[in-house]
Every structure is written in C-alpha cells, then in structure tokens.
Design a protein that fits this description.
Layout: H1 2-13, H2 15-23, H3 28-47, H4 51-75, H5 80-105, H6 112-135, H7 147-160, H8 163-194
Length: about 230
C-alpha cells in the first residue's frame, strides 16, 4: 500500500537530492551498495541488542533505495541491469535485517528465530509471486504487507522494543498478502485461459498459459500421389 501511494511522492520530494548526488559523481549502483553496507551494520547492531541504533539503521537503509532511481535517471543509465541489481539487493537487505532480529531473539526463546524465519520466507514468496506474475504478463501488485510496510513495522518494533508481538503481526499480514496475490494472479490466468481465441488464430486459447501452439497447416489432407513405378501407388 505504501509503495503504491507514497513511494512516488517521496521520490519526487527527494529528486533534487538525487540530482545533486549525480553532479557529485555518485552512481545509482554506489547508492545500492551503500544500502547493503548500512543493512549489514544494522543487522549487527540489532543482533547485539542495540535496538535504538537498529531503528535508525532501518530508516537509513531506505534512503538509498529512494534515491538510486533518481540518480540513475539523471545519469541516463537507468535500465534493466540496474533494476535487477537493486531488486536483488533489496532481498539481501531484508535477509540481513531479519537475520539480525533472529540473532537477537535467539536469547529470548529457542523457537523465536523460527518465527522470524517464517516472516522472511513469506516475504520472499510474495516477492516471487509478483516477479513471476509479471513475467507471465499478469499483475500481482498490492497487498497489506509489501516491503515498505515491513520496514515501517520493523522500525516501530525496534523503537519500542516490541519485536515478538510485531513479528506475529507481520506473519499474519504477510501470509494474507501471499494468499491475496495468489488469488489475484489465479483469476487473471483463468480469465486469460477462458478468453476466446484471437481472430485468425484458431485454438490459441486452448491449453495452459504459454502452451498455445500455432495450427500446423501440414496436417491438412493432401491428395494421394500415384507412383510412376508399375505396381505401386
């Protein structure tokens, strides 16, 4: 929800900063690497029990993620390679931050790290659902618990030292988001499968998505050829 409603506004507000960073010679990939370094340092701080420091680290982790797109546009180097690097880096940052939380909670209960692992696993599932849906031509955006919401709730949990209750809340909301995206894509795929074939392409809607094959004209009946060899046809 935050990605759809507030991310674009935040990026526009920070656009002058992105332009200034470009003029200073800072690249978008450099900002992405900086975000990874901050995430790693934040994970260590959380694991060591410095939750307030971890709060500021989570906030700082999101700043390069908001600025790298603007820097890439001003540099004229925005493209699939940078987008891929940024997306993978976000997943690594998530793993580092939640790994730090699991490390910290291990001293409070031997099963609590499993709770954190479950939240992380579900977050990876909803990310994969969106990526796979878009590769098939469908949309899987939206949901109650996207990355922005996870980072906001994690920051609140660190600030007020309510990690365990917040992990349970995140687990439920992330599971609901995974189900929501699955149902959303399933309905789109069902409508596509049941859609009438396009004109001039008989049978295009038959079978599963992506498996439609063009009609083979060679299967049409052909006149039988008569052999010129005596006794053979």
């Amino acid at each position: 929800m935050l990605d759809g409603r507030w991310r674009a506004k935040a990026e526009r507000a920070l656009d002058p900063i992105g332009r200034s960073l470009h003029r200073l010679g800072i690249s978008a990939n450099g900002l992405t690497v900086l975000g990874l370094v901050i995430a790693a340092a934040t994970a260590v701080a959380i694991g060591a029990g410095h939750l307030t420091l971890g709060f500021f680290g989570v906030v700082l982790t999101g700043v390069p993620d908001l600025l790298d797109g603007s820097v890439a546009r001003y540099s004229g180097k925005a493209g699939p390679r940078g987008a891929f690097f940024d997306s993978v880096s976000d997943r690594v940052s998530d793993a580092l931050l939640f790994g730090g939380v699991a490390w910290y909670l291990a001293d409070q209960g031997k099963y609590l790290p499993i709770l954190v692992l479950a939240v992380l696993a579900l977050s990876m599932i909803i990310t994969y659902e969106r990526a796979r849906a878009e590769s098939l031509g469908f949309s899987a955006r939206g949901g109650l618990m996207e990355r922005a919401e996870r980072m906001v709730l994690l920051a609140i949990a660190l600030l007020f030292d309510i990690l365990v209750p917040m992990m349970w809340i995140m687990l439920v909301l992330t599971a609901l988001t995974a189900v929501h995206r699955f149902v959303k894509v399933w309905r789109q795929a069902t409508r596509a499968a049941n859609a009438p074939p396009a004109p001039g392409r008989p049978g295009a809607a038959a079978g599963s998505i992506g498996d439609a094959r063009p009609t083979d004209d060679r299967r049409r009946s052909r006149p039988r050829r008569i052999s010129r060899v005596p006794g053979r046809r």
